[in-house]
Amino acid sequence: MKALLSPQGFSVESYDPIFFPQIELLNFRYDFVLCCEAAEHFFSPKKEFETLARLVEVGGWLGVSSELAPSREEFPQWWYRRDPTHVVFYQKETVEWIAANGGWKIEKLESPLWLLRKNS
Asked: Which of 21, 38, 63, 94 could in theory staple to 90 by disulfide, Cβ–Cβ 3.0 to 4.6 A?
């Protein structure tokens, strides 16, 4: 993928604490960070979103792909909660709190895609 994007001026790196534990990548700042189907695995969401905020340049973007939790009544039948690796779920209000307290502006918030722009 890196070679595919490089001719257009983009560089792509992959980090995953299990599959691609390239710790050195956490020392840089990025214009765009994608957290794809991972936020629901965060045992410490506040800490993880603080790390993501530290990685994104001011004016940069954070894309998150994670289903938003349904209403309390619909939750027991929700397929997403049945995955045993999913340890945390987010509602619209949760993402709004993350944005307000993490220096983000919500540009898009439609399950499963959240697009946040770094304000500060």
From this structure: 94
